[in-house]
Design brief:
Elements: H1 2-28, H2 38-47
Keywords: Signal
Length: about 50
């Protein structure tokens, strides 16, 4: 149970960092540019 809690906490931290990074990219990028979601999925798969 302890390992599961640590895993969920790590997953939450990664998700929060990715969310903030996506917001930063979204606000800094041009309106016509879409925010790439493939690196985010690859990052999540790497940690999972």
């Amino acid at each position: 149970m302890h390992m599961t809690t640590v895993g969920l906490l790590l997953l939450w931290c990664v998700s929060f960092c990715v969310f903030v990074h996506d917001l930063d990219v979204l606000f800094c990028a041009q309106p016509t540019r879409e925010v790439p979601s493939v690196p985010t999925l690859e990052l999540m798969n790497y940690f999972l």
